[in-house]
Amino acid sequence: xxxxxxxxxxxxxxxxxxxxxxxxxxxxxxxxxxxxxxxxxxxxxxxxxxxxxxxxxxxxxxxxxxxxxxxxxxxxxxxxxxxxxxxxxxxxxxxxxxxxxxxxxxxxxxxxxxxxxxxxxxxxxxxxxxxxxxxxxxxxxxxxxxxxxxxxxxxxxxxxxxxxxxxxxxxxxxxxxxxxxxxxxxxxxxxxxxxxxxxxxxxxxxxxxxx
Amino acid sequence: xxxxxxxxxxxxxxxxxxxxxxxxxxxxxxxxxxxxxxxxxxxxxxxxxxxxxxxxxxxxxxxxxxxxxxxxxxxxxxxxxxxxxxxxxxxxxxxxxxxxxxxxxxxxxxxxxxxxxxxxxxxxxxxxxxxxxxxxxxxxxxxxxxxxxxxxxxxxxxxxxxxxxxxxxxxxxxxxxxxxxxxxxxxxxxxxxxxxxxxxxxxxxxxxxxx
DNA sequence: GGTGATAAGTTATCAGTGATAGATTATCGC
DNA sequence: GCGATAATCTATCACTGATAACTTATCACC
Lengths: 211, 211
Known about the structure:
The structure is a homodimer of 211-residue chains. Chain A is 65% helix and 0% strand. Chain A contains 9 helices and no strands.
């Protein structure tokens, strides 16, 4: 697959933002076939139909490009969770639905989820420090809706844990553990996926809610 | 920190295995200060006191070196879990202890845990395919002890879930979610760590066990 | 105690990476 | 048409993982 790839036409004067989108799309598409480090800026540029240095007119570094994908993934997750919250009431059934919404998002957009949650950005000099707190801020915003939901359940007297923030962090971890392993270790001999997910949600519900 | 680093003395004839250990030690030490991709083979070689190409006498590729660290991390996890199983009885208290053992391992050896569980090795051409199933096999072995424990609890009639394998996978995911986020997203505004861990284990116990 | 075999290590080099400098070209308002 | 500038290119840099080809220390043996 070494298609020479047609150069896309030069953008008219004010259309830089459009090219930016094309680059991000191309990058996310490529990231689905290999991790962030094995995809090169040259591959991204070729897929976007431009030369490699042209990328740097739109993103200061490769990490910045990734950070932008990260922000957008968080935004989409937040949108989905907010969607669910529209017809939300603090009941066990809705709890299950909310958990399912998160899992659905991760498994239906595994590449976005990987970029947002599973790219190593831990240590000082690297990713997070240089990209400012932008992805982090976006992540926090997505998290807030989750916090509010659990607070509702707590206020309705449905939770075991008397600290709703602790419960939220604990549930988030529980969800992330399942989807991140399903995404990153798909070759593991998992039991049938839907059965596993149903069981997982049931366990989280029993662990979190009374009755 | 650009120490020229004294070259370590040449090993006598049969001592190649010893140098191999030195390389692995040096690599794991470096991986604690940056992710696997930002640490170069030249840095590893310098830390081990040899030239960069000399690495390739001991490991076919950098991925193979990482795979070896992965195998060893799984082995240490298995050792710790087996340790705990020595005085194991299927009770809720011991359940808590087992969960704690896993979390303790991950948080006391975060670098090993990261290499073992959090290095992207998803897609075809890359890591897993080329390193054979060795890390995977080591991982499965560590997992088996876990399976046996949950099966004990199930046999004792203590579990909610009627499928012990499903419960095992679900609990593992629950544990992994917490420790992987604590390790990779340490900058997140977590509540106090011990409180969080205690709450997490309590939630998992309620979700998994009756009463 | 010299001799060849070979393990252990070297230097030099390769193609590919992220990133930068500086020249070039298309599009715009006038 | 004209100057300004956004959009882009080619050429290049230092560094990466990896390989080839050469050197040197250590060994068993006569």
